[in-house]
Write a structure and sequence with these properties.
By secondary structure, the protein is α/β, with parallel strands linked by helices. It has a single domain, classed as 3-Layer(aba) Sandwich (Alpha/beta knot), CATH 3.40.1280. It has 5 helices and 5 strands. Strand 3, helix 3 and strand 4 form a beta-alpha-beta unit.
Length: about 160
């Protein structure tokens, strides 16, 4: 099964890529995690933020493969503990469709992206830097997979 993190972002520091790659490479056994970046739209003024988010949203929606299960990372989403995320991951595997996780830009996801989402996931009530979200999602998915595989990475 393929999981794709679709992120509205400009280039991230090397430590972000290294952190994401570290967890993505650990996933084995028929599951793969990739990242695809959607370039940020221009924000010449604070008033342009909404228009920029909509432009990014249009780009993101165009990048979602037909038939994909879409998960929006949004503060309005449901917070899952590791076991709940493992159950979701198991359901996604059984469903057999590609899964695309959306991370918005500085102004969040557009209304059209939120409307397209099959479900919404909130990592935290905190506002997190974009790079940390990438790493946190990759680690959370790896940990959930380790629960399903009975791998000793996840300990209770």
């Amino acid at each position: 099964m393929r999981l794709t993190l679709l992120a509205a972002s400009n280039r991230q520091p090397a430590w972000v890529s290294a952190g994401f790659d570290s967890y993505a490479k650990r996933l084995r056994g028929g599951i793969r995690l990739d990242i695809r970046e959607i370039p940020l739209a221009s924000r010449p003024s604070p008033a342009a933020a909404r228009r920029a988010a909509e432009t990014e949203g249009t780009r993101m929606l165009a990048a979602i493969p037909d038939g994909a299960h879409v998960v929006a990372l949004a503060d309005s989403g449901t917070m899952w503990n590791t076991r709940e995320l493992a159950a979701r991951l198991r359901d996604w595997v059984v469903e057999g469709r590609p899964v695309v996780l959306l991370i918005g830009g500085p102004d969040g996801l557009s209304a059209s992206c939120l409307a397209r989402a099959d479900e919404k996931w909130s990592l935290s009530r905190l506002t997190l830097p974009h790079g940390l979200v990438r790493i946190a999602v990759a680690e959370a998915l790896y940990r959930a997979w380790s629960v399903l595989e009975r791998h000793p990475y996840h300990r209770e």
